[in-house]
From TrEMBL:
Pfam families (UniProt xref): AP_endonuc_2
Presence of the UniProt keyword Transcription regulation in the record: no
Gene Ontology terms, MF aspect: isomerase activity
Source organism (scientific name): Paenibacillus aestuarii
Keyword terms of this UniProt record: Isomerase
Domain Xylose isomerase-like TIM barrel: 16-253
The protein, known as: Sugar phosphate isomerase/epimerase
Length: 262
């Protein structure tokens, strides 16, 4: 069996195009399901359930105005959202859900970082429990400091995952954020048992294969970590129909494999 499955972070309207290009799956924004609007959600759900290519992953867990850190957290709104998210993810059949959501998790000025961390730990525990029986895992996404002032490295995300210690909580490594933060690739190997998902891009956060990111070091580190599973391109695309097939060819050539069922 091949080690990797390759996908692209994109809107559901690109699902057919991604299938035609030969991708294994699509990764969509959970926020785009409009979970808090029952009417809009009911309209959108069939697009994901009946997608021509599997929606195996979701990112952008929370809409930007739904705060999960700070004094303005609406616990009941968060609880309802997480419950609806778990149900939708199960219906769609996604197996990995990314918690990036920099705007939602940013620690506001004047709020103690220790309190922020406690709120995030409680949230992770809540999501972990909500995901029981769904077949999905949540992965914590480290973001660079321009996007978030909390959880900026793989090792930091792993520390939180270890503290929660829930089988449904794992960690994502994003090549772009790692490069922005200068995080050593050794962290992939050091934290290998926690790795559940990978995001990639290239110089300037453009399509993989268009820049100078050190893939010749990243790929061996990922292999040394024993990682098998999904790898999603998450980047800015200027000409999708031109760039995406070329990037997929680059990904298959560089990582050497595809169509993983892992």
């Amino acid at each position: 069996m091949d080690m990797y499955a390759f996908g692209w972070c994109s809107g559901i309207e690109r699902a057919e195009a991604l299938k035609q290009m030969g991708f294994d799956y699509i990764e969509c924004a959970l926020a785009s399901l409009n979970l808090e609007n029952d009417g809009e959600f009911a309209e959108k759900l069939p697009l994901y359930v009946n997608s021509p290519i599997p929606v195996r992953a979701f990112n952008i867990f929370f809409p930007g105005d739904l705060k999960v850190v700070g004094p303005d957290v609406d616990d009941e709104r968060v609880r309802r959202y997480v419950h609806k998210a778990a149900k939708a993810i199960h219906q769609i059949g996604a197996e990995t859900v990314v918690l990036g959501s920099g705007r939602s998790r940013n620690c506001p000025e004047g709020w103690e970082m220790s309190r922020a961390e406690e709120q995030i730990l409680q949230l992770l525990e809540q999501i972990g429990e909500a995901f029981v029986g769904t077949g999905a895992k949540l992965v914590i996404e480290p973001l660079n400091k321009k996007e978030s002032n909390i959880i900026n490295s793989v090792s930091e995300a792993v520390r939180l995952a270890q503290m929660v210690n829930h089988p449904n909580i794992r960690v994502l490594a994003d090549f772009y954020h790692m490069d922005e933060e200068g995080e050593p690739l050794q962290t992939l190997i050091d934290n290998k048992i926690w790795l559940q998902h990978i995001h990639i891009a290239d110089t300037g956060r453009f399509s993989p294969g268009t820049g100078q990111y050190p893939y010749e070091q990243f790929v061996p580190a990922l292999r040394a970590a024993g990682y098998e599973g999904m790898i999603s391109a998450e980047c800015t695309v200027r000409e999708p129909d031109v760039e995406m097939p070329v990037s997929l060819a680059f990904m298959r050539r560089t990582f050497g494999g595809g169509s993983a069922e892992a």
